[in-house]
Structures are given as structure tokens and as C-alpha cells.
Design goal:
Blueprint (H helix, E strand, L loop, with lengths): L1 E3 L1 E3 L2 E8 L2 E8 L6 E3 L1 H6 L8 E7 L2 E15 L2 E10 L16 E3 L1 H4 L2 E6 L4 E6 L14 E5 L9 E6 L2 E7 L7 E2 L1 H6 L10 E2 L15 E3 L4 E3 L2 E2 L5 E3 L3 H5 L7 E4 L8 E5 L4 E5 L2 H4 L2
Parallel strand pairs: 4-9, 5-8, 14-21, 15-20
Antiparallel strand pairs: 1-11, 2-3, 3-4, 3-7, 5-9, 6-7, 7-8, 10-11, 10-22, 12-23, 13-14, 13-18, 15-21, 16-17, 17-20, 18-19, 22-23
Length: 287
């Protein structure tokens, strides 16, 4: 199943249908353990603001409590998941005036993990494949791809090892992060400090769904690689956000690996065979 996507502020947006409401634009977020709807979407669906339950969600800025509901069904491109739990979060600060899109929600890995998928940002499409019970990988029919193992212990997560300036770093692939975030353990391991040439203090500190922000710096690492794939050089953030501690990664080099490294290539994830694969760079392949 092929679904068109749009871009806004670095986010990948896809159309979602809930309860007869079509073309609700959701951020595709492979690192969100729970899907999200905005207060406006809650009201549109007729869910009462004084009902539901309370759920605690861990984001970039730590733990926060949110109102929670269970949806009868949610579909993307005709593929349906039933009885999907969601939390209600105000997403206004994530939106882009330039795109003209209102963010109706976030589609997390509680949906994605039931499918193998290809996120192709250069061509503006998301491809979803029902997981094959025979264990056959979607990867075989997708052309030239370079693959690394998915090291995740928990279902739905996408975890790999990357090399940053030749040093090993654990990476959480997060399609909901428009810009990658390295912790300072990874930065210092690569020889980078806040005083290093090329490091600048960011005016916008990193934070997730919560309200707390972490002091943030910007830097463009020269070499970031996953297996044989070398990613384009691009500005990333360096910040000790709370999610590293929540994931047990605050003492080791780690990165929340965002879509800034996927602007020129497709990402293919096979939960069926525990593979994370990357296409060749579109820019490199162009004549």
C-alpha cells in the first residue's frame, strides 16, 4: 500500500482516517510508543474532554501525563488497526504556518510495528506491507539496499549502531524528529565540546511533548555511517535530553536519529526479518 506524504518543518505528514473522518494529517513517528491526537481532533471525533483515562508518556523532556482514549479504528491507506490507544496532546507549537497544515495527531510505532514499511522522503511516499507470517522480507524486491540489523529489544522500536567520526554510537531511528539529537557522551567521544570550532548554541532548546527543554547546541558531524551507508553531512543537535536516561542511554554514546539524515535516501524497515535498510543517495545517483 502506497500513501502520499507531505513535509512540514522537517516532519513527514501522512493522511489518516478515524471514525469516518478522512485526511487527518498525522506526523509519522517511529519512536512514539503511543499514537497521539490533538484536542481539536478529540473534539472532532466527539470524545469528551472530561472523560477518558490518564497515561504517562516519556518524551524528549521527560515524563508527562496526558488524557487517553481508545479508538475503535484507525486506518492508513486502507490498512486498519482496531482498538488503538491514543493520548491527547496540544500539537500547535509543532505546526508550520508555511505548510498550511494543521497537525491532527502523531502516528506512533503502536501502529507501524504491525507492518513492514518504506519511508521514501525524496519521492514523497510511505509504503506499508503487511508482515509476512512466512518470515519473508520485503527487502528482496526493493532494489539495491544496504542493511544493518535492528537491535531493538522492544517490539516496534528501530535501533541500530552507527559510526560517528569512526566511533560507535547507539541510534534510535525516530521519523518524528526533523533533526537528529546526539547526547554529549557521543559528542565528546567524537572529540566535540561546546567550545569546538563549528559548534553553535541553538536559540531553540530541544524538547518533546512535555514542557521542559534541554540546553542545545548545533553541529554538523563529517562522518555518520550505518554499515556501508554514509549519510550526508547535515546540522544535528547535541543535547542531554531526558529521553536518553529513560531509554538507559544516558551513560553511553547515543543519538535520536532523525529525518535530516534521510532527505536524500529511502529508509526500509522489515520488522519481519529485523532489518533496517537504506537506499543509495538520490543525489549521488543523479547524473
Amino acid at each position: 500500500m502506497e500513501v502520499p506524504l507531505e513535509r512540514a518543518r522537517g516532519y513527514a505528514l501522512i493522511p489518516v482516517s478515524i471514525g469516518g473522518q478522512d485526511s487527518l494529517w498525522f506526523v509519522l513517528d517511529s519512536a512514539a510508543g503511543s499514537s497521539v491526537i490533538s484536542p481539536a481532533t478529540r473534539d472532532l471525533l466527539g470524545l469528551k474532554s472530561d472523560s477518558g483515562t490518564t497515561a504517562t508518556v516519556t518524551g524528549a523532556s521527560g515524563d508527562s501525563d496526558f488524557q487517553a482514549f481508545e479508538l475503535d479504528s484507525l486506518s492508513v491507506g486502507g490498512l486498519v488497526r482496531r482498538n488503538l490507544g491514543v493520548v491527547v496532546v496540544d500539537l500547535a507549537r509543532f505546526e508550520s504556518q508555511e505548510s498550511g497544515r494543521t497537525f491532527a495527531g502523531i502516528l506512533g510505532n503502536d501502529f507501524l510495528r504491525h507492518f513492514d514499511f518504506v519511508l521514501d522522503l525524496p519521492h514523497g511516499v510511505l509504503r506499508l506491507f503487511p508482515r509476512d507470517k512466512s518470515g519473508r522480507s520485503i527487502i528482496a524486491g526493493l532494489g539495491t539496499l544496504a542493511c544493518v540489523p535492528n537491535l531493538a529489544d522492544d517490539p516496534g522500536w528501530i535501533v541500530m549502531d552507527v559510526a560517528v567520526e569512526g566511533t560507535p554510537v547507539r541510534a534510535i531511528v525516530d521519523t518524528g524528529a526533523g533533526r537528529s539529537v546526539f547526547n554529549w557522551v557521543a559528542g565528546r567521544q567524537a572529540g566535540i565540546t561546546p567550545e569546538s570550532p563549528g559548534v553553535t548554541k541553538s536559540d531553540n532548546n530541544a524538547r518533546g511533548l512535555g514542557t521542559q527543554a534541554a540546553e542545545t547546541y548545533l553541529y554538523s558531524f563529517e562522518r555518520v555511517e550505518a554499515g556501508p551507508t554514509r549519510f550526508r553531512r547535515t546540522d544535528s543537535r547535541i543535547a542531554d535530553i531526558s529521553v536518553f536516561q529513560a531509554l538507559g542511554l544516558d551513560k553511553r554514546p547515543a543519538v535520536i536519529f532523525g529525518t535530516n539524515y534521510l532527505e536524500d535516501r529511502a529508509l526500509a524497515v522489515s520488522y519481519t526479518t529485523d532489518q533496517i535498510c537504506f537506499s543509495d543517495s538520490v543525489a549521488a545517483a543523479a547524473p
